[in-house]
Amino acid sequence: MVNVTIKRIYDSVDKTDGYRVLVDRLWPRGISKEKAHLDLWLKDVAPTSELRKTFGHDVSKFEAFKKEYIKELQEGKQQEAFQRLREIVRENDQVTLLYGAKDKRHNQAVILKELMGQ
């Protein structure tokens, strides 16, 4: 079974990360492309700017954010990118989803990992 993990883009790179995918729409501040060590920046799988701004990393809004984000992944412009992520997970032994948010429990990478069956 494929192992999907999540970590902040600011955390150190580890050889056990496997295939590294940035799942943010915006490039994280202070990180060079070289330092990121990405295999893919899949920005189209990220929440829309409108949904991201509505959430505003307010923990009390996380459940509503999660519901709307899943709806976007299933019905919105993110469908194609979400399918691509699923293919990446199927094709690799280890996938690490990277995000820039400070909150490690309330962000889109947590939701994506959950949807990958992890």
What are its keywords?
alpha/beta; 5 helices; four-stranded parallel β-sheet; 118 residues; YeaO-like; single chain
If you had to describe this structure to a student in words, what would you say it looks like?
The structure is a single chain. With 118 residues, the protein is of the alpha/beta class. It has a four-stranded parallel sheet with strand order 1-4-2-3, with helices on one face. Helices cover 39% and strands 15% of the residues. It has one domain (3-115). The chain has helices at 33-36, 49-55, 62-75, 79-91, 108-115; strands at residues 3-8, 19-22, 40-41, 94-99. It starts with a strand and ends with a helix. It holds the Pfam family DUF488-N3i.
Q: What would a concise description of this structure say?
A:
The protein is of the alpha/beta class and about 120 residues long. It is built from five helices and four strands, in the order ββαβαααβα. Helix content is about 40%, strand content about 15%.
Please render the helix and strand layout as text.
Elements: E1 3-8, E2 19-22, H1 33-36, E3 40-41, H2 49-55, H3 62-75, H4 79-91, E4 94-99, H5 108-115
Parallel strand pairs: 1-4, 2-3, 2-4
Helix pairs in contact: 2-3, 3-4
- First-to-last CA distance: 10 Å
Give unreliable regions as ranges. Answer: none
Count helical runs. Answer: 5
Work out the strand percent: 15-25%
InterPro entries: YeaO-like
Pfam family, one: DUF488-N3i
